[in-house]
Structures are given as C-alpha cells and as structure tokens.
Amino acid sequence: MPNYQVLTLKYRPQTLEQIWIQEHIKTTLTKAIENNRVAHAYLFTGPRGVGKTTTARILAKSLNCASGPTITPCQQCSVCREITASQNMDVLEIDGASNRGIDQVRELRENVKFMPTSCPYKIYIIDEVHMLTQEAFNALLKTLEEPPAHVKFIFATTAAQKVPATIVSRCQRFDFRKATSDEIVERLSWISKQEQITISEDALRAVSKRADGSIRDAEGMLDQLRVFKSDKIELKDVEDLLGIISADLFFEYTDNLLTADPSQAVTFIDRVFSSGYDFIEFFTGLLEHFRLLMMTKLKINKTVLGISEQHLHRLVEQAKKFNLNELLVIMQHIADNEEIVKKTNEPKILFEILSLNLINILTNKSVMPTNNTSNKNPQLALAWQNVVSEFLTKHPFSANGLQHAVINESSPDNIVITLDDAGNSEFIESKKSEIENMLAKQLGKPVKINFVITKKSRVKTNPGKTAHEKSDNDEDIESEPAEPDTDTDQLYKTMFPKGKKIK
Ligand SMILES: Nc1ncnc2c1ncn2[C@@H]1O[C@H](COP(=O)(O)OP(=O)(O)OP(=O)(O)O)[C@@H](O)[C@H]1O
Ligand SMILES: [Mg+2]
Ligand SMILES: [Zn+2]
Questions:
Q1: Which of 66, 147, 322, 407 is deepest in the core (most CB within 10 A)?
Q2: Is the CB of 96 under 6 A from ligand 1?
Q3: CB of residue 21 inside a 6 A radius of ligand 1
Q4: Counts of helices then strands in the chain (DSSP H, E)
Q5: Mutation to probe ligand 1, out of 53, 154, 175, 186 (largest number of atoms < 8 A from CB)
Q6: Cβ(447)–Cβ(415) under 8 Å?
Q7: What is the CATH number of the domain that holds 269?
Q8: What are phi and psi of 154, to 5 degrees?
Q9: For 377-389, what is each residue's pLDDT tens digit?
Q10: Quick check: CB of 219 below 6 Å from ligand 1?
C-alpha cells in the first residue's frame, strides 16, 4: 500500500483543538498558553491511550513553534516538524521505565543547566514517570524546586498513586479520563468515514467494548480489521479477529438453563471448553450477560448499556423468561464464583457445578429466600441464601441437603434449620460450627443453630446409612442401578437426587 500510515499516527491530534474528550485539560492549557502562564511542571495522569503523550507533544510544539507560544502551532516550521517526528534536540522524550536510576536523573540535572539549542524552551517529557526509583525522585526534586526559566517538565503516568506526593505537589496535575463506549463508537465512525471503511454498528460496539476506554486501542483494532476484511466489517469479523466470545453463546447457555436440561448444559460447557475459549473471560461475559438481562428488565435504555438495538431486542425477549429475583440470585451465584474460577485448576468442574446449581434454582426454586425462610425476616433470608451458596462452593458434593433446608428463627440469635434425613443431613450436622460462622459473618452477629431432622426420604435408604454407603446386599432398598463412581456421576447424583441422568 503506498504511503500506508497506521490510523493512530494518521489521526494523532496535532493541536489542542483536535484532542477529543479531555475538555477541561484543553481549556486550561489553551488559557495558559494564551496568557503566557504555562507552569514549569505538569503531571499528566490517566489510563492508557487517552492522549497524555499526544498532549505533551502538542504543548511542547505550542511553546517552541517558530511562531509560538501559540495554540495553533504552524506544523510547517522545522521545530514543529522535528517535534512531530520526535527529533527535536530541545524536546527530550525520556522513557521513565528504562531510565529510572539516580545516574540518569543526575545527568538530566547537569543537562538542564544548558540553554536550549534552537528553541525558547528545553522541554523534558518523562513518560511512565512512576517507574523512577526513590533516589531518582529525590534527585529530581531539587531541580523541580528551582528550575531554570528555560526549562519545562511534562511527566506522564498511568499510575499517579506511585508518584511521590512531594513530586505531585510541585506539578500542575491533569487527570485524563477514559473514553466512554459511545465516544469511542463516535470517533471510530468518524475515522471510518474518512477512510471509507464500512463497519456495522454491532461491530463498532464490540470494538469499543474491548478497547475499554482506550482511544489508541480502539483505533489499533480498527486498523487490524480493515486489513483483515476489505468489504463490510461485521460483528462476526470482530469476534473472529479479536477472539471475543460471541453474545450468541451467552444466549444459548441461558436458554439451556431455562430448559433445565442438565445434559444440554454439560454438553454446552464441553463445547465451550474444547473451542479453546478463555474460561475466565467466559465467566465474566456471562456475568455481564445476566447484568444486561437485569438492566433490560429494569427498562434501562440501550444507550446507557452501550449495546445495539438488535442485542437489546434479544435481551428483552430472554429477560421475559425470568423474574427479577431469579436474575439477582443467578448473578450473585456467578459473582460468588468469579474469584474461585480464577484460582481453580478445575474450572470445568466448577462451571458444571455452578450450571447444575443454577438449573436447580430455576426448577425447584429451593434457594429462593421466600420459599425456605420465614417471610418476616428478609435479612435472614438473604443471609441464608449466601450461606447456602458459600457452603455449596466449599462442599459441592455434599451440600445438597442444605439447599432444601427450611430455616426459622426461634429467637433472634437462635436459628432452627430443618433438614430432610435423606439430604446428607449427617454431614451437614457435622459442619454445624462452620455454618454458624458463615451465618454469623453474614448477619454481623453471633448466632446459634439447631438442627431438626425430618424423615421424608426421597430415595429409600437403609436407616442409619447414607445413600452413598449402601452395601451390595441391602436388597430391601429401592436403589438406582449401579453407575460408574466418577466425580461427575457422583456430582449429578447429589445435585439431582431424583435421578435425572446424563447421557
Ligand atoms: N484524547 C484523544 N483524542 C484523539 N485521539 C486520541 C486521544 N487519546 C488518544 N488518541 C489516539 O491514540 C493515540 C495514542 O495516544 P497517546 O500516545 O497520547 O496516549 P497515552 O495517553 O500517552 O497512552 P499511554 O499511557 O499508553 O502512553 C494517538 O495517536 C491518537 O490516535
Ligand atoms: Mg504515552
Ligand atoms: Zn511551527
């Protein structure tokens, strides 16, 4: 391609006027230049790719341009051209990460004394300034206190909290902000128009979401996409190129939960795993999907949500199949497991457990607070619901009985938990103090619990033995056919005591 220039370079702002979204910074700097009140040191902080370095260079140009100081540097003089190409001797761009030591700062201090070669000011732009060592900062401090009149410092950093307060307080600080999803869509649409790139709204939304507020990242992705696809860029192209998990998958997974067919859910999980998707990303995406379902149910509009019309329409349809309470409980379950998924070596098993648990919730609503606790105390109901999900995460194979437990207050500090003797009641009783602690943590006060065991067994078992301890010659027991004793089979038995089987 002749004269091919990447978009981030081609569309890099060259004047304050051209900078997007950082309005307050533009206004303040414009006034400072116009009134000749430019400070001797600035600190530009903010997330990646939002214009810190760009603004630093523009400020340098505005001060040093042959016709400066001016808010409209000519772009033609040798100084302007040199600064654009990072080749001006008096505008020194220093990477703080690779020049972080005391020696480099001492050198800088020596250098500062000399007059600029061809410009009014010697301007030091130190990027990633938070990377300097403590000694380097100390050495810098002296220069910052009494800088020669011909010197300006512009520090840029993505981590202002790592810059010592002594330095920060000697600078004028500007906080650059992230771009919103809509702003990125707007900028990319504008660039696409200039470049005659055709791209669908859905695709733009996906790019802007992935960019997470960074204008540079968004432009970089658009660049990649136009090379990848010469005709119209569609959502599918963005998903393929950037490895974004398609929203279709979240809709499908949610449908599986609604169908309450464990085998479908498990097959789906297997498919997601074997397609090589990143599981943590899938998990986060799923949480976001349920958040969106909830938001559409609450009638939050699509602009606030940053989604397309078509996506909104699908969400509205799916959200109709849930009530608000169900969405809340599901979100809470997913959120509770998010940290664990990041740490576990067995994300697949964890995900299966979660999915089956969610199906359980949707089918028999056993963890719904109103069903299992006295309506009189919603705080207890919510606390109990959290205890059940925490316990289930810790003891995934044995907590089934707890989900079906009925909980009541005999006095504010005494809780009675009624268990069915078929549902691992012995195991649960043995964890009494653990449950007490969990509940106390939720309620913020110590509580005592007592168990009441009822006998309304679902699977007939030999009295005194649990379902899993059945011996071979217990012929009077109505037992299920023997199945291979794998973890997963065990899990399903526990989750579905009535014996829904997985093929
Ligand atoms: N506010 C903005 N207005 C217009 N374009 C921007 C803006 N911020 C970033 N860009 C685009 O992103 C590119 C990179 O911006 P820049 O180098 O200034 O980001 P940065 O904040 O210094 O990022 P980093 O922290 O990663 O160094 C620019 O060339 C430009 O194309
Ligand atoms: Mg930068
Ligand atoms: Zn100029």
A1: 407
A2: no
A3: yes
A4: 24, 8
A5: 53
A6: yes
A7: 1.20.272.10
A8: -130, 115
A9: 667 877 887 788 7
A10: yes
Asked whether residue 503 is domain-assigned, the answer is no
Residues 35-60: tens digit of each pLDDT: 999 999 999 999 999 999 999 999 99
Residues 231 and 348 in one domain: no
- The secondary element (H helix, E strand) that includes residue 449 is strand 448-454
Beta carbon of 213 within 6 Å of any ligand 1 atom: no
Percent of the chain with pLDDT over 90: 53
Which pLDDT value is given to residue 326? 86
d(CA 221, CA 228): 10
Task: Please give the structure tokens belonging to residue 158.
Answer: 């993505």
Which band of pLDDT confidence, cut at 50, 70 and 90, is reported for residue 458?
very low
Number of domains observed in the structure of the chain = 4
Q: Quick one: 417 and 432 in the same domain?
A: yes
Alpha-carbon distance 467 to 425, whole Å?
11
Give residue 60's pLDDT.
97
Task: Give strand ranges (E) for 445-486.
Answer: 448-454
Beta strand 448-454 with 151-157 is unpaired
User: Are residues 16 and 160 part of one domain?
Assistant: yes
Cα separations in angstroms, 188 against 39, 218, 225, 281, 312:
34, 8, 12, 25, 22
CA distance 87 to 80: 10
Q: Is the pLDDT of residue 225 over 50?
A: yes
CA–CA gap between residue 499 and residue 492 (Å, rounded): 8
Indicate if the pLDDT at residue 146 is higher than 90.
no
For 451, which DSSP code? E
Contacts of 352 (CB under 8 A, 6+ apart): 265, 266, 269, 488, 491
Domain range for residue 155? 7-175
Mean pLDDT across the chain: 84
Q: Are 43 and 59 within 8 A, CB to CB? A: no
CA 274/CA 189 separation, integer angstroms: 36
Among 22, 48, 52, 215, name the best residue to mutate to test ligand 1's pocket (greatest count of ligand atoms within 8 A of Cβ): 215
- State the closest ligand 1 atom to the C-alpha of 19, by its place in the atom list counted from 1: 3
Whether residues 354 and 266 share a domain: the answer is yes
Measured from the Cα of 8, ligand 1's closest atom is: 31
Q: Are residues 122 and 30 located together in one domain of the fold?
A: yes
Q: Cα of 289 to ligand 1 centre, how many Å?
A: 30
353 and 424 in a common domain: no
Considering the domain architecture, whether residues 154 and 18 belong to the same structural domain is answered as yes
Kindly state whether residues 127 and 219 are assigned to the same domain: no
CA of 77, nearest ligand number:
3
Query: Which 3 state secondary structure label does DSSP give 361?
Result: helix
**Residue position matching structure tokens 């000011």:** 121
